[in-house]
Amino acid sequence: MGKYILRRLVMMIPVLFGVTFIVFFIMSLTPGDPAAIILGDQASGEALALKRIELGLDKPLLVRYATYMGNLLRGDLGLSYRNQIPVAGQVWDKFPNTAMLAVAGIIVALIIGIPVGILSAKKQYTFMDNSSMVLSLVGVSMPNFWLGLLLSLLFALKLGWLPSQGMGQGFFPLLRSLVLPALTLGTGVAATVVRMTRSSMLEVIRQDYIATARAKGITEKQVTNKHMLKNALIPIVTAVGLQFGHLLGGAMLTETIFSWPGLGRLMVDSITSKDIPMVLGSVIFMAVMFSFVNLLVDILYAFLDPRIKSQYGGPAKRRKGVVA
Amino acid sequence: MKPSDELLSIEKVTIHYETEDGIVHALNEISLTMKKGETLGLVGETGAGKTTLAKGILRLIPSPPGVIKQGRILFEGTDLLSLNENQMRAIRGNSISMIFQDPMTSLNPVMPVGDQIMEVVEAHTKNASKEEMYQQACDMLEMVGIPADRSHEYPHQFSGGMKQRVIIAIALACNPTLLIADEPTTALDVTIQAQVLDMITALKSRLNTAMLLITHDLGVVAQNCDRVAIMYAGQVIELGTLQDIFKRPQHPYTKGLLGSIPSLTKNVRRLSPIKGLMPDPTDLPPGCAFAPRCQYASDVCTRGVPAIYTLSDTHQVRCVLAEQEVNHE
Q: Which among B55, B94, B105 is the nearest to A217, CB-wise?
């Protein structure tokens, strides 16, 4: 198991190289001069030129990339063009807010998604199943920014129950301000989870060991929880893990709509001001997060399925000679 | 048969699968009885309705599409079809248990085998601690010849034959009065088949359990059963003791089945298989379902479903040819 994790960590290095390379070049090739953005339209040509030298923009692209990567390997993500504050610090500042929102969104998705998915599978082709499938299709298709706007129109403007902007201070105000963005994020994810849970459960329901379990005379609830769900979990965990990885990178649209001070909004602001180090820093951070969540999911498999554990060469107990 | 000996009595049970492609007539007014402690072999081709009957007794037919249209299944005097789900659950795994066909897929892959055995003990035991029940599960493992210290291992760590033993342990854990074994050895190697069957037979006589042994292997029947029921298209077409069926088969289908076994003692150039295929269960022929394949078939056969003719105390057959037989005697 330890070896497996180490191998996976090493495999992350080329991924991160690829990500930085692509983002660095795309950002450099897009039109717009960072110096002009920092100094404004009124700046003189001389000031702009000086600023460019200061930012290192006078050097060739490959040299800039090499310098950046050299710094990155020492853990230095550089200074933001806009405010000359270290990028790493800003990303770390915003990350807890994004993480909070991501966790809340996933909780919403799981609370809705798993039970509805199970019910749908157990009552396949009934009214309940069909309507939950239609609703989840709507949920998947509905753009987050639109749902977010509708929710804040209803609950914040019309009914005035919940705040529509920003992050509250203190536990309860924070919780209240978390509800709408979490619902917005969670609904889309829930729809995916419903469909995944349903199809995965349907596959398990027809297995022979479910017949064995029923023939034991245990309750239907035990059959569902101990036999069906446990075997159906792997695809569900995979889907949820992927979504969680995405959310940890910051939900740009949702954070923008609700003025949530997270990574997503930091990203949007940095892109519009062409703050290359900031964008690069956030993207690298997202890629690392995404890879870590994926690794976690893969490790989780081993705990869900003993067959995978033995493939990883894990501590599943085996004795010589008795395994045929 | 004295009524007190009677363990299971299936009376005119009809089970249909109502699918979009039509109604599958899986069981058509099937009747069958079993005595306490006896082994009844249920023989038939794939699709004859053997597994439907087995699952029907335990009321494990998936519904939809399965519908139990009519009939009674009396077990120790109680009609299983009239019980509610809770009462039925108290019987499953307790007084009637089942061994499924394929040991490779019949165990939950993510649950240790000890827990899987304990689950059935837990469902039917009251006033016992977890430790006692786990101990009982371990004892069951030892009984089927698996060391108890392997109880925490998962199914993928066992071979096919050992998995089937675990399944047998699950089935026998609550000391059932009836064991339904649905082709318990079909998926196993020939050498393991004999081991597993010997074990089932030994345990069954030790616990005095009756067994409904479903198979399409007449050799298995000859070695393990007291009586045999031959099934065709959802009906029992011949029923008798081993002697009745193997020495004095009456139904042309039974004769055909026995004719397709190679003999060691007779010099036969070719085997004589039964021509044709089993009829489509969504579209059964009128009258005797075997008539289209039967070399003795006449107009009488297609006019109505043949009655059951009793040839002796133990031997019954559902074929018009037997009528002449009965009348001549």
A: B94
CA distances (Å), origin B43, targets A221, B240, B290: 35, 12, 15
Tell me the nearest-neighbour CA distance from A192 into chain B, angstroms.
25
Contacting residues of A for B120, CB less than 8 Å apart:
216-218
From residue A160, how far is each of A150, A151, A157, A168, A176 by CA, in Å? 13, 11, 5, 15, 12
Between the CA of residue A293 and those of A85, A90, A297, B70, B76, what are the distances in Å? 28, 22, 6, 55, 57
Domains of chain A are 2-73 (no CATH), 87-311 (1.10.3720.10)
The residues with which B27 forms a beta bridge, in sequence order, are B15
- Is the CB of B119 less than 8 angstroms away from the CB of A209? no
Chain B residues within 8 A of A306 when measuring between CB atoms: 109-110, 154, 156
Indicate which of B97, B106, B113 best probes the interface with A, i.e. most A CBs within 10 Å of its own CB.
B106
Which run of H or of E encompasses A18? Answer: helix A2-29
**Contact assignment for A215 to B60 by CB distance below 8 Å:** yes
Nearest to residue B24, comparing CAs of B292, B269, B283? Answer: B283
Q: Can you give the pTM of this predicted structure?
A: 0.80
Average pLDDT over residues A31-36: 79
Closest-CA distance, A317 to chain B, in angstroms, reads: 7
Contact B44, B257 (CB under 8 A): no
Query: Any chain A CB within 8 A of the CB of B102?
Result: yes
Closest CA to B251 of B38, B43, B54: B43
Closest CB to A211 among B60, B94, B119: B60
- Regarding beta strands B227-232 and B235-241, do their DSSP bridges make them parallel or antiparallel, or are they unpaired? antiparallel
Write phi, then psi, for B258 (nearest 5 degrees): -65, -30
CA B227 – CA B41 distance, rounded (Å): 6
Q: Which residue in chain B is spatially nearest to A301 when comparing CA positions?
A: B110
**pLDDT grade for B214, boundaries at 50, 70 and 90:** very high
Residue B74 carries which side chain, given as an amino acid letter? Answer: L
Token look-up 């490779």 returns B104
CA of B292 vs chain A CAs: smallest distance (Å): 35
CA of A86: how far to CAs of A73, B141, B157, in Å?
15, 64, 54
pLDDT, residue A321, reads 39
Q: Is B94 on the interface with A (CB under 8 A)?
A: yes
Spatial distance between the Cα atoms of A268 and B279, rounded to a whole number of angstroms: 69
Residues B50, B46: Cα–Cα separation, whole Å = 8
Q: Judge whether B24 is closer than 8 Å to chain A, CB to CB.
A: no
Per-residue pLDDT reduced to its tens digit, A109-166 = 999 999 999 999 998 888 989 999 999 888 888 888 888 889 988 988 888 888 888 8
Tokens standing for residue A297: 């999911």
Query: What is the pLDDT at residue B328?
Result: 56
| Test the B interface: residue of A125, A216, A230, A311 with most B CBs within 10 Å | A216
From the list B90, B100, B162, the residue facing A217 with the nearest CB is B90
B176 alpha carbon, distance to own chain's centre: 15
Nearest residue in chain A measured CA to CA from B174: A216
> How do residues A192-222 score in pLDDT, each as one tens digit?
999 999 999 999 998 999 999 999 989 999 9
B97 token code pair: 């248990």
The SS3 of residue B262 is coil
Residue B67 pairs in a beta bridge with B16
Rounded mean pLDDT of A303-312? 82
